[in-house]
Amino acid sequence: METALIEKVGQIGLPVKDLDRALRFYKGTLGLTLLFNTDRMAFLEAGELRLMLSLPEKDEFAHSSSVLYFQVKNIKEAYERLSGKEIQFIGEPHMVAKMEQTETWMVFFKDTEGNTHAFMSEEQG
Q: What is the pLDDT of residue 9?
């Protein structure tokens, strides 16, 4: 049997309109660790995943990204802690699934660049 070619997702790229503003949001508001940056890109660490913020090279790449689901331990605490900061929540934390004793909770938000993302947590119900 052949071994898998792809081991894991190593990096996700997000198009941004204003790199400084996006960096303040992802580093300052969300608390991700900045690895390094250039005048057109910034690389941040989100657990074992690297997030690349970049100014699009061409207009055809200047569109909103896929939804990133950031795992948090306590979604209600994350929501309360970040409400009123540079984050626009879309609704409130809510349960989206329950399997046996595990509840999956989510709350969606927009970043400073118009991308929609979510916080998610799995709690024992």
A: 73
